[in-house]
Structures are given as structure tokens and as C-alpha cells.
Amino acid sequence: MAAYDFDTVIDRRQVPTSKWDRYPEGVLPMWVADMDFPVAEPIATALRDRLDHPVFGYGGPGPASLRDAIAADMQDLYGWTISPVDVVFLPGVVPGFNQALKAFAQPGDRLVVETPVYPPILAAAGNWDLTRVDVPVLPVAQGCAVDLDRLTGALAGAAAFLLCNPHNPTGRVRTRAELAAIANACLSSGAVIISDEIHCDIVYGAVRHVPIASLSPDIARRTITLMAASKTYNIAGLKTAYAIIPDPDLRRRFIAANLGMSEGANVLGLVATEAALRNGRPWKQALLAYLEANRDHLVARLEREIPGIRITAPEATYLAWLDCSELDLGDAYRFFLDKAKVAFNPGPSFGGDDHHVRLNFGCPRSMLDEGIDRMVKALSQR
Ligand SMILES: Cc1ncc(COP(=O)(O)O)c(C=O)c1O
């Protein structure tokens, strides 16, 4: 671990950043999904080298070498064979699923999502005048699993299913069997699968991520898979992501729906993404070990010191979904913001209730401890 430093606290208020700028000084931000860690050295080096070339014109459809690196990664990490031409570069996963909805749904169509879920997924149906059909994930006690009966019913006549796997905010990773059942239900109903897999690389222990499109060529033909190096390597501000669309017709329709809104990716983001995929793995392994220890530390401290909070250790992501209903705080987000000076994401923004908050543990251990200390103190002073 000594080769990588995840412990040093970096003053992020010196540069503009959503995470640290939204709340006044004195509030500890544990909300938006970026981490308080420095970028991996191979990425910093690649960016510096690129800066030595003084021209920053349009990047075009993206470098062939990066397409090759993505195809190699899919094979190596997931045993999924794709062709480099299947890749479409984008400025983000959020633009990607919005573009997919423009391409594959008409106003008035039904879009199925599982709740709670990442707020822009919740908002996407409204962007395109679609009717959103919510399928609540089964409760924590039942492992936040997919409610297949309900999902199958909801998919009847739906244009698309917008899957989030690994799941934000619960951190659950869908099993191969669950994914097969979801995919079969979508194929039977004719719904296109739009799969946001941005957290695919931040998975702990023996759990494995399975891209839903990797299950079979038939499923791949109906799926738009959205990924990025941005969460794993903490480069979200470089605005670069990619869609993997093996079916040429689906890919053509997806690209045609761009309408000038989200074409191409940032030239520095492409460089950073390639450096991450080609040379970032040792850093990633160290990061995962650190995050997993943070997760275990968080769960252990909450269980010991705030047993009124229910938490299931996330299998993936650096996000934890806290059920505070037993504490009877009213609006839990407000309580922790006002009384503990810790900023989480409020449950209702995910389609959950206000007893839930989402905590981001992608930070130095000392910062995580500071957040938990503040929570414990505020609760003791109630
Ligand atoms: C599930 C999910 N999808 C997408 C994003 C953001 O994607 P992008 O910044 O590439 O638009 C996030 C960020 O937290 C996320 O959690």
C-alpha cells in the first residue's frame, strides 16, 4: 500500500469543484460521487505529455488505440468479446442514456427504472416526455434484489429498461442469474436495455461484475452498455465515457439521435481514459483494497456506535445507503447537515424516503472517521 497514498487529505477548495463548493466551510461533504484522492500517476504523466503538444482541436471519433484498449479490457475483465467499432465515445454516461432514450423511445412511451436510483436516471423519462414506471428493489433485508415479478409486469409494452448495475445507491451487484432473468424479460417484451455500468470496476472481494450484454449475442443485440473510467480513476471532470453497441442498426440509430448535444469526448479525457486502462491497474487494485477497508470500517463503526442506522455493506461503489428510520430523525439529510455539519445526498432525490441518505466513503480514512464522529456527536446531543 505504501506505493500509493490514499491517506493524505488534499485541500480541494483551492480549485472549483462541486463536492466542496456547494456547502459552506465547516460542512464535511460526503455526497456527490467523486473521491478525495489524487489521480493515478500514469494518468497524470499521460496528461502532462499531451499538454506538451500545443494544439487542442476536436478529437474526432476517438483514437483507435483506445478502442482497442476498451475491447481488450472487456475481454480480460468480463470475458466479453466486442469489436473496437462497437465503441461510441461520449462526454458522459448521463448524456449517453439520454441520447439512447431519444433514439429508442417516443413521447408517451413507458420507461422502466428500479428505485431508489441515481437521480439523473430518475429524471431521464421526464426529459423525453416518457412515462416512468418504477419498480422498487426489494428491501435491504432481502438483499436489495430485483423484484422480478414486478419488473416483468412493468416491462409489458415498455420501450426501454434503464438498468443501473452496480446499483447506485445500494451498491448491490446483480448476479448472472438475475441479469439473465432481467434480459429475458426485456427481450420478451421488446424493451431495449440501456445499461448504466459506470461503477463496474469498483467491486469488492469475490463479487464479480457481469455486463448484461455479455450474457449472449441476442441480449447484446438489444443493449446499449454505458461505461467510463471516470468513477474508478476519479476523472469525472474530464467528461469522457463510452457506449458499447454491438448491433450496427442500434448503433446507427443511437449516433443519429445525438442531434449535436453530446457528440464526442474531451481530448484530455480520452488521453486519461487510455492511460487508466493501459497503465492504471496497479493503482486500481490498491484503491479497491483501501475502499474495501473504508467500507468495512464504516459498517463496523455504525453497527457499534449508531445501531439505529441500518446499513448493508455495499458489494460495489464507494457509496453506502443508510436507513435511518429507527432513529426517527424526520428528514435525515437535514438533521445531519444542520446538526452534524455533514452533507450526504438526501433519500428523496433517489426516489427513496427522507429516512435514507447516501454516504460517499471515497475519501481518506481520517475524513471518514471525522464524518462518523460528527454523526455520533450530533445524535448524542439530541
Ligand atoms: C450510476 C451513475 N451513472 C452516471 C453517473 C455520472 O456519469 P457521467 O458523469 O459520465 O455523466 C454517475 C455519477 O455518479 C452514476 O453514479
List the helices and strands and how they pair.
Blueprint: H1 18-21, E1 28-29, H2 41-51, H3 64-78, E2 87-90, H4 93-104, E3 110-115, H5 119-127, E4 131-136, H6 148-155, E5 160-164, H7 176-189, E6 192-196, H8 217-220, E7 223-227, E8 241-244, H9 248-256, H10 267-279, H11 281-305, E9 319-323, H12 332-340, E10 342-343, E11 345-346, E12 356-360, H13 365-380
Parallel strand pairs: 1-10, 3-4, 3-5, 5-6, 6-7
Antiparallel strand pairs: 2-8, 7-8, 9-12, 11-12
Helix pairs in contact: 2-10, 3-10, 4-5, 4-9, 6-7, 11-13
Bound molecules: pyridoxal-5'-phosphate.
The site of pyridoxal-5'-phosphate has 13 residues, from helix 4.
Q: What sequence of helices (H) and strands (E) makes up the elements?
A: HEHHEHEHEHEHEHEEHHHEHEEEH
Strand order of the largest sheet: 2-8-7-6-5-3-4
How many extended strands?
12
- CATH architecture assignment of the largest domain: 3-Layer(aba) Sandwich
Structural class: alpha/beta
What is the CATH first-level class name of the largest domain? Answer: Alpha Beta
Q: At the third CATH level, what is the topology name of the largest domain?
A: Aspartate Aminotransferase, domain 2
Count of structural domains: 2
Name the average pLDDT.
96
General shape: globular
The CATH superfamily name of the largest domain is: Type I PLP-dependent aspartate aminotransferase-like (Major domain)
Largest sheet: 7 strands, mixed
- Terminal CA distance reads 40 Å
Rg, nearest Å? 20 Å
The low-confidence parts are none
Total number of helices: 13
